[in-house]
Design a protein that fits this description.
mainly alpha; Helix Hairpins; about 90% helix
């Protein structure tokens, strides 16, 4: 094999290894959760900033609205002073007109700022929805990860057991047992044969002596019984 072929084989195996790692569902899920947590942190920061802007803008709108109401109140007080003779009607009208002008200016400003506050609050609501979606996705992914880990553990254990079972040579085991059975039966048969051969190998003299010893034993027993009877021993 040439050096280029070997390099190609090595590169190919490394590529498959990378793909296998990349396609690991547990690692993918863990990475997905990490990415979502980073997105959640960014979304929470943006949400806090937008909410802060919305709160400040709404306060500014309320302040402008209060200023408009205050200038309207001042215009009314000027007109009342004119009626009471405290200031001339011309002066009262001039100052009241100025006050109403400022009232209109602040009222318009309050309306504009309130609309801006509405936009910020709407953006904050959208960001809040995104935050809720990310939290829900993290919860779902976390549950999926727990399930995947349990399934992976079960699959790994099952694979090991099945692999061990597949490596067991059942036919070889049965053949070995049959050989052992045949060996035992052979040994039993030989033991019986040797026993029969031992009984066949007895000589005629052995048989005669055996018969005589048997008779002597019987005679001796009879003599012993007769002696005991004579002595009155039962």
């Amino acid at each position: 094999m040439s050096i280029f072929s070997r390099l190609f084989k090595i590169g190919q195996s490394e590529a498959h290894s990378v793909v296998d790692k990349f396609e690991d569902p547990i690692k993918l899920t863990e990475q997905g959760i990490r990415d979502l947590r980073e997105d959640l942190q960014k979304a929470m920061t943006s949400l806090a900033e937008v909410k802060g802007i919305a709160i400040r803008t709404r306060k500014n709108a309320e302040n402008a609205k209060r200023l408009a109401a205050d200038y309207e109140r001042k215009a009314m007080l000027l007109l009342q002073k004119s009626q009471n003779g405290q200031i001339t009607p011309e002066e009262a009208d001039r100052l009241a007109t100025e006050a109403l002008s400022k009232k209109e200016q602040h009222a318009n400003e309050a309306l504009k700022i309130a609309q801006e506050a509405d936009r910020h609050e709407g953006m904050a609501n959208k960001l809040q929805g995104n935050v809720n979606k990310i939290k829900s996705a993290i919860s779902t992914y976390q549950n999926d990860l727990t399930t995947l880990k349990a399934r992976a553990k079960t699959a790994s254990s099952t694979k090991k057991i099945n692999k061990q079972l597949s490596q067991i040579d059942s036919s070889g085991t049965v053949a070995m047992l049959e050989k052992m059975k045949a060996k035992v039966e052979e040994d039993e048969s030989l033991a019986i044969a040797y026993g029969e051969m031992a009984s066949v190998d007895k000589t005629v003299d052995d048989e005669i002596n055996g018969a005589l010893s048997s008779g002597q034993s019987a005679a001796g027993t009879a003599s012993l019984l007769e002696l005991k009877k004579k002595m009155g021993i039962e």
